[in-house]
Model the fold of this input.
Amino acid sequence: MDARLNYFGSALGAKVMKHINSANKVVVDSTLPHATQKLVEIRASQINGCGFCTDMHTKDATHAGETAQRLNLVAAWREATVFTDAERAALELAEQGSRIADAAGGVTDEAWANAAKHFDEDQLAALVGLIAVINAYNRINVITQQPAGSYRPGQFD
Done:
């Protein structure tokens, strides 16, 4: 499978990616736990059907020491006992934030309040930013049909 467009090789696409990457760097450098960041990236990518991002973030999480058990259970996090309450709150917010079109009210007050119990204001800002950024990456990759499977951890560092 070949990508429809070499988005990353396009001058304009490169400019867009530079700004998205800058926003992502702010989140990565925040106090939002890195394990939580990876789980959110994986779950949003699963929901959006982005094979490229699912491949990348699961490999990066594995490289950072995440367990196969937890990675295998991200899609079924509600039934899994391997996630903390804070991670579960972040995953719920990621799901609702990625499925805005599916829910008439968007993110529920309950999901927000639950996340606010576990994260401070800066961490909530990082979490919202992360959900927005990963959804942007997902959409670029899905629209251009970026193939999945060949990512190597640290490839874009």
In short: Residues 40 and 138 are 12 Å apart (CA to CA). Residues 32-141 form a domain with the AhpD-like fold (CATH 1.20.1290.10).
